Amino acid sequence: MTRPYQELLSRARSILEKESKKANVNRLELPEPGVLWVGNKTIFRNYAEFPKLLRRDPNRLLMYMAKELATAASLDGERAIFIGRKDKESFSQLIQRYMKDGVICPVCGSPDTHLEKVKRLLFMVCEACGARSVSKVV
Ligand SMILES: [Zn+2]
Fold it and tell me: Three-state SS for 74?
């Protein structure tokens, strides 16, 4: 008697699993920024993980964040050091914005893109759908 119900349940479950896998293709799981304050400096402890996941130049991302936060920043191995006290949320938001403007393909939403410089324009080339879009971040 319980059989059809069980079957239905397992079918529903497998559909749900498929759906969530589909959604994950377009999402990058980013770690939480690890932030430490020392004097008037902010140490972003796991900084190196972010450009690695986004497949972008660590210096380029750092320059972007420093500019947006209107401060100076430098790389220190895996860490990045910012002048002034910055909180974790500002880093998260900046990274999200950077992804939206220069990593995620605007056509299909895939994060698998790389940059190509053509003359003075920077293009974002999508490896999933092949679309070429002008990158909003430099
Ligand atoms: Zn695409």
Answer: strand
